[in-house]
Amino acid sequence: MFSQEGLLRTVLLDRRRRSRALLTALLLGVSPLAHAQAAAQGAAQLTVTTDQTVAYVNGVATPFPAAPRLIGGRTLVPLRETAALLGQPVTEVAGQLQVGRLNVDPGRAAAFLSGAAQPSGSVVDVGGVVYVPVRLLADGLNANLSVGADGRTLTLSALAQGVNPLAPQARFATDKTTYAPGERVVYTEYAFDPDGADLTARRWTGRQEVFFQPGTYTVSLQVTNSRGLQSAPFSRTIRVEGQAVDTPLTYALRYAEPGDRFPDPQLRAYPLAVTQPTSRENHPLIFSNSPEVPTQSGILYQDSVSGRVRLLGYHLNGLRAGARLHILARNLEGGPVELRTERRGETAPTRIETLLGQVTLLDYFASTGGPTLTLPPGETVPVYASPTLSPGTGVNVMQDLVASGRVELTFLMLEEGLPATAQVAQQLPYLPHDGKHQRGTFENAVRGLRVNLTTLPARLVIGDGQVDPAITGVDKLTGQPQRLLGNYGVRYHLEVYGAGGTAVAFSPRGGLYRGAMHVQDGPVGQTIKLPRTGNAIEPDQPVLLWRTQSDRLDLDLVPASGSNLPVSLIFYKTNGLGTGTGYGGLFKPYQP
Questions:
Q1: In the record, which residues are listed under signal peptide (predicted)?
Q2: Under the phi-then-psi rule, with left for phi > 0, alpha for psi from -120 to 50, and beta for the rest, what region is 86?
């Protein structure tokens, strides 16, 4: 076994093959971090040919668009691109590039090796790509350079750079190196920190769960630890070739997570699902959305009801000061009335209108009930009060109430500081309809449908006013009939039969949409956020909701305030996934 001194002498005798970083790493007893494709041997070998756009890294063919060139009798290679394939870092300071011992100033077309100026012509700009003589780059990297018999083929062999022994190391593997188009790539990450510090950030470049187009792809990972130290990039090359095993649609039906988007340009041609109305307990909706942006304190809407009722208020503060939305209940009976909150969802304050509807629905589906209030005859109590809304911010509240007798419900916008009392409400004006939005009392705020899946794929349209008619009502403040475009606040309860072995997706038809839906699949119940991130906006990019296990699937959907209607539910057949029937037969369930 060699002593440390003997090893050091060997290193110093062969300086062109071993970098200073490697020497430091050996003295510290730390293995150097190699370029990903050369991790095992700690070195990279690059073979290039003049004017050829394919290079070979450790024997693996790799695209090399910036081909080597013969200029002025010397062979020049692209600086950044060649260093990258060798796994050598390129740093840039004040416009100067440094690779190993080589410094290049592209602006002055000047190069310096260990501080010594190099001959004129050592730096050439070719179409915005910086080229340097291959021998100069080899000297700068302490790399071996050999020239083939044809004089055009060059091979560079360079040892990997040493690393900070306190820095984390990025590592990952893929289950294969060559994939078919549409085949799932399984990544296993095993990055680590030498001292066991937490890895606090991961930065992937080029990572995709699937590649649909043939070609060669490079995937890189860089990690950061809790000390703020960053690893060197770690890369692997993936080759995609052969016959496709999945299309983007069939791949999504296998692997997409609830809330993920996927492409389906054919969905508008799918037949409508067969539906039948179901008899369910129904109740009215009291809807306050006009004036949507009140500019003074006043009464927004008012009506009296008994029994079960849904309240939906959607307003933006147009006052010049802070304001709050209040809902007051007044007992109209001669005896006490109990008023119980069954469910409530709320969003306030926010300037992002699509958030108003989505957060309210997520809150609503998560609600387990609220207080029960007892109102003496003629008594007025608040049943809702929003947080303070600064000018321009909005509120959305949806609340299910059950009253044991008749109560008057009043929506008010009050400037901050005004108390929400019956006396104040009596002195406020009734604010006029804004002519753009709806308000009113609408019967039949629950729409029950039995959906029979006899043909797949199939679609179910919601909120278009034609296939799915708008509910009608009356503005009790003016007596004018109202048509609730979009059916905001209507709760759809869908009983889907023949659902086993299907996937359900959601397609926005009118533009931006952010909402939620509750799914009951046998014993499993879950609320799905639509979409999981961002806004659903592309009509031909539905969002996956669920893969169904039971023959009957129950879906609860309320069109989201602040979003655009109509929307469609799409039902796809997924029987046979993973069996090879029409899906390529390469099902991969494991994804660490």
A1: 1-36
A2: alpha
